[in-house]
Amino acid sequence: MGSKINKTHYGYYFIAPFFIGFAVFGLAPILYTLYLSFMKWDGFNDPVYVGVANYTRLLHDSFFYQTIWNTLIIWVLSNAPQLVLALLLALILNEKFIRGKHFFRAVYFFPHIITPVTLGVIFSLMFDWQTGSINKLLMNLGIVNDPVNWFNSPWWSRVIASAVICWQYFGFNMIVFIAGLQSIPSEVYEAAEMDGATKKQTALHITLPLLRPVFLFVFITSVIGGLQLFDAPLMLGDGPGNTSRTMVMYLYQTAFKNFDYSYGAAVAYGIFIVVMFFTAITAKASRLKD
Amino acid sequence: MKTRKWLTMATSVVLAASLMAGCGNNGNNNSAAGDASNSNNGSANTGASNGGTKELSGKLVIWTFFDQVKDMADQFEAKNPGVTVEVKMFPGDQYQTKLLTALQSGRDVPDIFDLERGYIGKFIDSKFLTDLSAMGGDDLVKDYIPYVQELGRSSDGKLRAISDHSSPGGFWYQKEIAKQYLGTDDPDKISEMVNSWDKIIDLGTKIAADSGGKEHLIQNAGDLFDIEAYNTQPWVKDGKLNIDPKWQTIFETQQKIRQGNVDAKLPFMSAGWGNALNDGSVVLTSMPAWAGFMIDNKDNKANGKYGVAKTPEGFYVGGTYRGIYDKSENKDLAYEFIKYIAGTEWQQHNLEKTGNMPGSGKVYESNLDTYTSTFFGDQNILKPYYESVKQMPAIKADKYGEDILSKWRKAAGDGITNNLSYEDVVKNFKKEVKNTFPEIKVD
């Protein structure tokens, strides 16, 4: 009896369900995708081994590079305002003497409950060129004379896609920030107050530094989530010259619209590498500050 | 100690089991269904091998995306009391992925499955479809509209799928609105007024100008893609991209339509398109015979309100084809079903009930002078439809056609909206084709 720690194997039985589930629904498809990416397969005939042909094609695929660029643009356009908005609202709603703060916390969280596909459809109807409510409103107010063809402009398409995502997630991030704010011990604030710190000084020198772990969490999840943008942008369309097509939309179209499963698999691994790359940068950047 | 060990084991087993329950149940159902069809299989074969006049029995499973197949199954069951037809419907565009997955795995596969015009080209040469020619299918379609039967043939000319309808299109209009803007609601006179694109451009420009841009003659310059889609050469010839020179003329016409404010710029089947069809802010809507459900006919208020005129060229949109799974154990019974829907009895019933146009020329001809529907009042819409579908060229579906057409739609659609030159449109289009189908030769 060298150690008192119970090392019986029963613990493994308890964690087994997750690992079995992961192996069947996670690992197996991941490995199968890897296998497919070295094949040529349209779903009708048997797969044929083609070596790295799909990856060579991917490296020369200007459409794929365009989707990386599009995804990054949409990600920046949606996350920058989203984080600022979430933080500001969190700071405001965390104040002690704000009327109806619980009501507003709930209301801001509502968009998060709606499925992204629904949001995409709502926005695409609102911004429709001929029949959309936004154009009707702008024309009635006399701001524009002719209806604006939003989805015919690369930047408007991207801004609208970003707006959908921003609107959907700012409430969620706000709740995370509020949770972070509430975990800051009140003693620190009291001490600051005793020393005569102003509200601004408290916010800049106490609240923000102590929120850093929460920032990191929000940032890393938004990098991973943001690079996998799919459902809402899909409902809004590819945009003119494919300027609002994201990486995962391209994967979907390749594999499930054109039935080019093998190339789709290669695109999936391409996306994996891109996401890994940006996650690594984020992780590195966060460690540098320590 | 022993009890605790046992408890631990039991709990983890239960946890693991509950996790697997989802797929477990499915598997059981599958094998049960398989058993059922196997056991019924014997009797089904006897029925058919005795010449088909004997009572049929057995069970068929049909997969479709289209809810009217249920009526088809009901009618077939009523005629053959010994047969059960199970219709599984998967609405939406996930159907083809679901079907392909099932066919690949070979498990829980239907006996008969539906294929839509949009993707039949991908399936038609696959190993999943039974050769109906070998079963005598050519006889079933000998009176068919040429284009309808040709779409069900694989590249070696064998019949693999059969449709029970044709889907001709025309200009639908509200009679009141037509009287107001065209001066007549007579279908023949209107057909005459719009029998060329030049006439449409002139007439539409005038209507837009007179109404101050509020009224448009047609829905969308993009409708020409549908109308011309099967009036042009195939997109791929001998492995090479082939752009029919006619597309240039079409593109120029489309630009003129847009510049003259002739179209309301509403895409086919969009919400605004449906509104315009119902409120009459567009005079002529080009749409297929099956799209009548887009008209709000609550309490029959639209009966007698609409008429149909001919488009400058005949066209069709869509079409549902039905094939037999090659490894089905109920092939003979499935063939009886296909035979039933290819026959005049069902197509006549369907025409009367839903207004869907038949696939068989025989059914067209027997109704040619007599057909009326409460919806269209006294207008016999069958006759003009027959004249236009008869002339549609019989072209086989290939695996590229529809996808490349949609790329052309996108490239040329961008070109119309942004007033690009035809050369730029072709350049963008070729780039898209090259990227998606690297195996096609593009100049």
Sequence-ordered SSE layout with sheet pairings:
The complex is a heterodimer of chains A (290) and B (443).
Chain A: H1 10-36, E1 39-40, E2 48-49, H2 53-59, H3 62-93, H4 101-113, H5 116-126, H6 133-140, H7 154-182, H8 186-194, H9 199-210, H10 212-227, H11 231-236, H12 247-257, H13 261-288
Antiparallel strand pairs in A: 1-2
Helix pairs in contact in A: 2-13, 3-7, 3-10, 4-7, 5-7, 7-10, 10-13, 12-13
Chain B: H1 2-49, E1 58-64, H2 69-79, E2 83-89, H3 95-105, E3 112-116, H4 117-123, H5 137-140, H6 146-150, E4 162-163, E5 169-174, H7 175-182, H8 187-193, H9 197-210, E6 216-218, H10 223-228, E7 236-237, E8 240-241, H11 246-259, H12 271-279, E9 282-288, E10 306-309, E11 320-324, H13 331-342, H14 344-354, H15 361-367, H16 382-391, H17 401-418, H18 422-436
Main location (chain A): membrane
Keywords (chain A): Cell membrane, Membrane, Sugar transport, Transmembrane, Transmembrane helix, Transport
Protein name (chain A): Multiple sugar transport system permease protein/cellobiose transport system permease protein
Account of the protein in words:
Chain A: It is a multi-pass membrane protein. Chain A: It is found in: Cell membrane. Chain A: Its main location: membrane. Chain A: Residues 68-282 form the ABC transmembrane type-1 domain. Chain A: Belongs to the binding-protein-dependent transport system permease family. Chain B: Pfam families: SBP_bac_1 (PF01547). The complex is a heterodimer of chains A (290) and B (443). Chain A is mainly alpha-helical. Chain A has one domain: MetI-like fold, CATH 1.10.3720. Chain A has 13 helices and 2 strands, in the order αββαααααααααααα. Chain A has a two-stranded antiparallel sheet with strand order 1-2. In chain A, strand 1 (39-40) and strand 2 form a beta hairpin. In chain A, helix 5 (116-126) packs across helix 7, helix 7 (154-182) runs antiparallel to helix 10 and helix 10 (212-227) runs antiparallel to helix 13 (261-288). The longest helix of chain A has 32 residues, at 62-93. The mean pLDDT of chain A is 90. Chain B is of the alpha/beta class and 443 residues long. Chain B folds into 2 domains: 30-166 and 319-367, D-Maltodextrin-Binding Protein, domain 2 (3-Layer(aba) Sandwich), CATH 3.40.190.10; 169-318 and 373-436, 3-Layer(aba) Sandwich (D-Maltodextrin-Binding Protein, domain 2), CATH 3.40.190.10. Chain B contains 18 helices and 11 strands. Chain B has a 5-stranded mixed β-sheet, sandwiched between helices. Chain B has a 4-stranded mixed β-sheet with strand order 6-9-5-10. In chain B, strands 7-8 form a two-stranded antiparallel sheet. In chain B, helix 11 packs parallel to helix 17 and helix 17 packs antiparallel against helix 18. Chain B is globular. At the A-B interface, helix 1 and helix 12 of A face helix 1, helix 3, helix 12, helix 17 and helix 18 of B.
